[in-house]
Each structure stands twice: as structure tokens, then as C-alpha cells.
Amino acid sequence: MKQALKLVGMFLVGILLGVMVSGAGIALFTDMTLAAFFGKLFRLHIAEVIGFPLLFICFFLITLFLQVTLHEAGHLICGLASGYRFVSFRIFNFTWIRKDGKWVLKRFSVAGTGGQCLLAPPDRPEEEIPVCGYNMGGVMMNILTALVALGFLLWMEDLPFMLSVFLVFWVIIGLFLGVTNGVPMKLGGIGNDAYTLRLLRHNPATKHALILQLRINALIQEGMRPKDMPEEWFKQDAATIDYKDILQATIGLMNVSRLLDREEWEDAYRLLEDVKSHSSELIGILQQETDAELLFTALVTGRMERAGELATDKLLRYIHLYSRVSSSKQRQLFALALYQENDREKAETIYRSVVNLREKYLMQGEVNMDIALMEVLLAQEA
User: Fold this and answer.
1) Full-model pTM
2) Closest by alpha carbon to 144, among 136, 155, 134, 132?
């Protein structure tokens, strides 16, 4: 009951804020005064009183979706113009890739992100690879389209009332996304576009990590397993990693994937324990990823007490949440079934499910690795 009341309260507050923002926007950007706006609002029929707030919510959701799409399109256009190669384009959890000359839609999500445009960097020396356009293209697109809409509001006369309201939402959301990505800051522990660009321009290690991560992700999406990638990509001195830098920390976890793919369980376990010792420096999602793979390696290497410590309700919820889009999470659930629950039948069911759905996963190199590892572990426990 309390949860229902909370949702109703949030809904009403959202309606009130929507009406206030729309009124302020109309008064600022059109000839209509605030008094005239609210006067027109108060003369509405009861059905219109209910319908208008709902319409405002629809305007908000539509403009948010379109501005997020344009933000990622800005990354895409500026990245391609800088010599990068297309890999994938994601809006919320809908991801488009090119496979065999055709567009393919897959499902994938990353906590803390509303979209993502992944490109592969050009084949040049790192110091010659541009990063500004690719990183800031989204900000430029949001601000540009918001200013165009603002121009319509300021200079076009006799715009229909509803179109004016829609354009107000368009301007506000466009500028909001532009500012929150264009002013260097961290949101939810993750650096925005401008924050990342600042790191890239002042820290060669961060730029190296970004370029390497983009290349690795491109090959994994195209089906290459980590163990088949150039060994020099993964030669990273753990002592030099800045774990507060998400890009540098991610390369360390990619090295773990390579060790797992080579079945070097003990080396992977030691590296993960080292990464975990820096948990206070890692953002939330990397803490969870580290714990999930550490749980897997603890189970595989027979460290059942350590696995029990790691298998918290919070971590298990995280693994289950992303098991629908990530084969690595299915592999971790497989290990829990095989080693902790001693349920081989359940483990085999998970394995068969991943095999049957392998083409649905976005990261094809990862799923190829995970299927192979599950087959090895099943054979060992036969």
C-alpha cells in the first residue's frame, strides 16, 4: 500500500512539474503570458484536465527518446567523420549491428547508460587518433537541435498550442542532455562525455585504454574470443592502473576474460583478488563485475568458502538481472549450479539454453568463450 501511494504521489508531482515547466516555457518563448496559460488551463473540461497532463508526459517521453537517439547519432556522425568504423548503435536496450551486410537488432544493456554508439578506431598510431569529435558529437547534436527548436519558438508566429508545448519539452530536454554531458562531471560514478574527453586529452594511459577497449569490443562483437587476440594488448602492469579511471580498470577485467578463456584459472583468480582489493576506487558496476567473475573462479578452483562469502543476495540479483543479455552471467549461474548446488542437470539446462540462444547475444566472442568453458567444466565433472 505504501508503495502504491508513493507511486501515485510521484505521478502527481510529475504532472505538477510538467505543467509548471510547460507554463514557464510557453511564457518565455511565446507571446502567451503565464496568466493566460493557466487561465486557459483552468477553463478546461475535466476530461481535458486529465488528458493534458497525460499528453505532457507523452511529450516528455517522446522527446527524451528522440534526444537520446540524436545524442548517440551525434557520436556516430562525428566518429565516422573522424575515421572510425561502425560497430553497434544502442538506444536503451535495443542494439543495432551490421552482420553479413544486413541490419540486425539485438538486446543489450549497460547500467547507468541510456544509449551507446560503439565504433572501432582507425588503424593509426594512438597519438594520431582523434577523440574529440567522437566523444563530443552527442553534446553538439543535443544543443544544436535544441537551439533550432528554440528558434521556431522565438520567431515563428501563431504556432499551435500543442506544438509550442512539444517544442518547449524539446528545448529543455535537449539543453539538459547537452549540459549534463558537456560540462565535466560524474553521474552515478560514471564520467560524462566531457569528463572522459578531459581525461583523454591529459592522460595518455586513459587514451590508450579507450582505444584498446574499442578494438577489443569490436572484435568480440564480431565473434573473436579473447584468447585469440594479440597478447601485447593485455600486457598491463597492475601497479600502474588508476582504478578510479573506468577505462583503465576495464582493461584489467578484459585481461581476466582472456585468462579465463585460456583456462588459466589460478592466474585469473589472483588477478581478480588484486582488482577487488581496489574496490573502494571502482565504480559500482565494475565492483559487481569483479565480484561476479571472482565468484566464478572461486567455484572453479574449489574455494567454496570464498565463494560463499561472495554469493551475497545483492550479487546474485545482479547476475540474474543481466543474465538475459549477457552469456557470462549465464556461465556464472552455471558454475553456481554445478559446484555450489551440486545440480548437474540444472547446469546442463543453462548450458543448452546458451547454445540455443547464442545468436541472440550481442557479444558473440564472449558467448563462444562461455559455451566452450562450460563444455570443459562439464567434461571435467563427468
Assistant:
1) 0.84
2) 136
